[in-house]
Amino acid sequence: MTRLSESHLWKNLREFYEKEGVKAWSSDRLPFFATNNPALAKTYVDLLIAYLEDCRDAEQLDPTQTVTIVELGGGMGRMAYLMLTRLKEMQDRLPCPVKYLLTDYGKSNVEYYKSHEKFAPFFQNGTLEVSQFDAEGPDRLQFDSTNPVFVIANYLFDSLSQDGFKIHDGVLSEISCYLDDKKELRFEATPASDTPYGIKAYDKVLQNYRNVLGNTHIPFPIGPLKCMDSLSESANGRLALVMADKALRSKEELLDFTSLPLQKHDRGFSMSVNCHAMDEVWGQDGGLSFHSAPRTNHLNLAVYCKGLRRDECRRTEHTFRDQVDGFGPLDYLDFRAQIMASVKNKSLRLYLQLLRLSRWDAELFYELSNQLGDAALGAPMNEQQELYEIMTRCWGNFFPIPDERDVPFAVARVLACINQFHQAIGFYGESRRIYGDRCLTLHNIGICQFNLGQLEQAVASFKEALKLDPQYGPSKELLLRTEAEARRQSSLTP
Prior knowledge:
The chain has helices at residues 8-20, 23-26, 38-57, 78-89, 107-115, 120-124, 200-212, 222-234, 275-284, 314-325, 329-342, 348-357, 362-376, 381-396, 407-417, 421-435, 439-451, 455-468, 473-491; strands at residues 2-3, 67-72, 98-104, 128-132, 149-154, 163-168, 171-179, 185-191, 216-220, 239-248, 262-265, 268-271, 273-274, 288-291, 299-306. It is an alpha/beta fold. It has 2 domains: 9-157 and 220-332, Vaccinia Virus protein VP39 (Rossmann fold, 3-Layer(aba) Sandwich); 343-491, Serine Threonine Protein Phosphatase 5, Tetratricopeptide repeat, CATH 1.25.40.10. The strands form 3 sheets. Strands 2, 3, 4, 5, 10, 13, 14 and 15 form an 8-stranded mixed β-sheet that branches. The relative contact order is 0.09.
């Protein structure tokens, strides 16, 4: 039998990420929207500024040196792009220069970052660096500056190695695992010693659980704790870490588990993070932690801070309470779902309000594009102008990955609905460049050209569309009509 954190489960999970690379997100097998959106990026940047101002006031910030923002487990890279875009907008508010270090366990993801066109300007101006980094590995990050470090860990800790314990009638047992004769994973609990880890801070938390909790099963976040210890050492004990993850935040939330809280899905599994244990260990060494107020949403937002006393961390805590406990990124996710599910006959104005609330999210624009186009037809000029401005900001937040969410196509379609045919053709061209030629894209280009009176070009576009799908009826029909119109116009010349 093997200790859970040392089992092949975690190795298999890492191999999955390394093998799939960015494709793991493009195929919708992994959740990503909740932790890759402009609303969350805004909150994180505001927390960064507040934290740096607290460090400055505590005389722990050198304004002439750079602060490194480290993203662990960067995945497809979209959050990094949104963060960099927001940091550029808020540049004048930053009390010192910043550099973004985007890391991931998978080599293929790091190579993807290096080649992504959206990152090119940030590489060129020196604000972005990328590196392959194993959050649980022996290597430590090295920082040139003596300034504090700001770390982002979204949907990371639930995939790092964890151990499991069982409490029954005051007896603490450790859960080990093994493969049975059918190669299926089995768990078995055996009595644990008083010092399962031989690390005082860890063992103290487990002893407390044994003494106060009823009969239950407890995940213990050994991987996340080792990761945070490593980061703290690299940052000389001066850092803030923000995280968004599935979490257990209190002793009450640890009660009544009849088995470990494993969630199985296409990538294998994950386990809710025992943030209560992390808080207890972190606090024993003078660290602070803030968690989002309880919600029905399973996601927990938290800040872990070390190097400042609580009375020196007032801006950070106030910003967190204001932006997370108030109407924040977690509420936005639920609110958006409720609006989309409950409101019938939605107006263009409501769609525009939702896009503003999202902080101009390109993914949401894509999801709403058909409704936006239909609602924009015949809308008042001022609403069409408002749509145009919002669409511009959403496009600025677009970060393409190899998936089917063709945002430039969506932008083009909406532009055509408000009679901006020249621009629509340009965005259809961008769709072709990124996603390749498709019958409907070429067909829609032909419609725009027809509306602009470019009949020869329209005929060519409809013919190109039919090469891709010879049976596509709308292109057949419009090709005949356009050729007929061209003949009529050629017959009437001065």
